[in-house]
Amino acid sequence: MAVEMAVTLGSLRLKNPVMLASGCCGYGLDMESYLDLNRLGGACLKGLSVAGSEGNPPPRIWETQGGMINAIGLQNVGTRRFIEEKAPRLRGYDTAFVANFYGHTVEEYVEAARQLDAEPCLAALEMNISCPNIQEGGIHFGTDPAMVHAVTKACREVMRKPLWVKLSPNASDVVAVARAAEEAGADALTCINTMPAMAIDVERREFRIWNKIGGLSGPALRPIAIRIVYQVSRAVKIPVVGIGGVATANDAIEFLLAGAKAVQVGTALFADPQCPYSILDGIEAYCERHGFLSVEALIGQIKDPGPRPGCHE
Amino acid sequence: MGVGPYTVRSNVRRGPYATITVEGRVEPSKPGQFYMVRGDWGADPLLGRPLSILSDDPSQGVLRFLLKIFGEGSRRLHELEPGQKVHALGPLGRPFPRGAAERGGKPALVGGGVGVPPLVYLAEAFAREGRSFSFLQGARTKDDLVCLEELAALGVQPEVTTEDGSEGERGLVTAPLKRAIEMGAPVVYACGPEGMLKAVAALCRGRVPSYLSLEARMACGYGVCLGCVVPVVRDGVRSYERVCQEGPVFEGEVVEWP
Ligand SMILES: Cc1cc2nc3c(=O)[nH]c(=O)nc-3n(C[C@H](O)[C@H](O)[C@H](O)COP(=O)(O)OP(=O)(O)OC[C@H]3O[C@@H](n4cnc5c(N)ncnc54)[C@H](O)[C@@H]3O)c2cc1C
Ligand SMILES: Cc1cc2nc3c(=O)[nH]c(=O)nc-3n(C[C@H](O)[C@H](O)[C@H](O)COP(=O)(O)O)c2cc1C
Ligand code: FES
User: Fold this and answer.
1) A30, B48: Cβ pair inside 8 Å?
2) Which of A28, A89, B83, B175 is the most buried (most CB within 10 A)?
């Protein structure tokens, strides 16, 4: 029995539901020696801004139990250099490249969206409204439904490609933020970005990371991401892409059952750049074992007992 | 590019140090390159640990590392037993550039602690080519001298300094290095603690090219996370470069020290 692995997210068809996460695969090209990108559903590239960024001073990362904290500071070459130097080398691939982008103001978001929308190698754009690393940026947009509505609408108006909005787990009401993005014209929602976190070296009484606060990623984040995917996918009509601690096929299936149409793999690539292959094989085997003819048939198929008193959906 | 899996053939421990030999499919490497190594232990610790290649033999499919316990990851690697599986990704990074060594005279290889293994590998390459060089090893005390057997097997007599005088010359490795430079060393290769590298860079500046292998915390080791950067200044322009990709070996002249 051949399992149909393709999934559709609005107008965009992915050959399978496994993508690479932004910030964890460079500009895609850096993965070439390890992974055949054409075997993946797609890849979200490192977050871009119009001006680019040299990023934060080191130390930028710290490992924690079942996860890591990063404060890279969104180091990137800027949209123009990306389009001139990187994008031409992505054009030959048969996979969905998604440009992740951010700004410090609505105008910066709009300008980045406008420039990237014109790049033919990109299948969609993913708006980072939630990166907790830049003091004045991301997090403020992502926690406030009105701001999210404004920035999503402004970008949507200047673009033709699908616009994905990547939500922060740090919003007090993430469902309200999701609804605001949907109403403003988002084509899909990516759940979730990293969770603001901190670690301290007790011997030296110093912060582990230069920026003091960084974003927690990896398996430790997964239960939070699953909960948010479940809540958001029930609250909106647009597709949800699940992300946070996916390392194995079971992790990915957990997201699909919770309601995600696709998953992204981030931190797990660091320990094993080829883990997307085993995730794909495992999803296919699971579908065969459970009699699902397609991945689409599996999405949201958790046996839901209905409302529970302590569970605010 | 090897992505494992490998099997531990032997793990020879001496105090906090361990010489670990693994077998599997090994790609050709050059001195100064490293692997990201983890045991087969699930998600905790999550990330590989960068370890320099001490020696390898692609034809036999073997790879050797020298490890010292620092924290949890290295402690778990220290405990590996023969037959256990490990994941190793590599060889990674840029090796020691060899051009400057062609100029004649004896290159100086300077190592301290877990910075010694890549220089042993470099010494092995020089020895095989019949090139003479000097090998300087600095340590706090006698017990922190490493790879002495490997060096003896190569017929290399290291010049040793210890801070407490328990072996060799008392003091810092910069003292014999200064003499080596005065004797006409055409190039200096160094790997060791930050303080040592900083002193080596200062000593070499303006006199002789130095190539330093730096350490940084790493998540991926292959260039995608941007977690491992160091500030460098090239042609007056300051930027962050990745220790795992543009490094780990940098010209002493470009490194900006904290
Ligand atoms: C290119 C390179 C080559 C190296 N070669 C060797 C070698 O041959 N033998 C050896 O014993 N050690 C070597 N090291 C250092 C070794 O990687 C660290 O000692 C080790 O990662 C510490 O991990 P831990 O879990 O024991 O310590 P912890 O302090 O618990 O580690 C926490 C985190 O910090 C990172 N980290 C901590 N200290 C260092 C450090 N000094 N360098 C890099 N990452 C660090 C760890 O990888 C981990 O992600 C090398 C480092 C680099 C960058
Ligand atoms: C080193 C690193 C860099 C990241 N950079 C970005 C980024 O540029 N833009 C973005 O939207 N998310 C970024 N993220 C967040 C990831 O895309 C992802 O949302 C998060 O890490 C959770 O997934 P994971 O547990 O699979 O890593 C980054 C994460 C890491 C670990
Ligand atoms: S360790 Fe990830 S870029 Fe160097």
Assistant:
1) no
2) A28
Q: Give the pLDDT confidence of B146-196 residue by residue, as tens digits.
A: 999 999 999 999 999 999 999 889 999 999 999 999 999 999 999 999 999
Between A46, A65, A269, which is nearest B44 by CB?
A65
C-alpha dihedral (B160, B161, B166, B169), degrees to nearest 10 = 90
CB atoms within 10 A of CB A58: 19
pLDDT of res. A313: 58
What distance in Å separates the CA atoms of residue A286 and residue A291, rounded to the nearest whole number?
8
B250: Cβ–Cβ under 8 A, 6 or more apart, which residues?
B211, B212, B214, B230, B232, B241
Inter-residue contact A187 to A10 (CB < 8 Å):
yes
ipTM: 0.93
Catalytic member of A24, A25, A44, A131: A131
Q: Is the CB of A269 less than 8 angstroms away from the CB of B220? A: yes
The superfamily (CATH) of domain A7-56+73-195+217-298 is Aldolase class I (3.20.20.70)
Domain segments of chain B: what residues? Answer: 6-92, 98-215
Judge whether A24 counts as a catalytic residue.
no
Residues of A in Cβ contact (< 8 Å) with B5? none
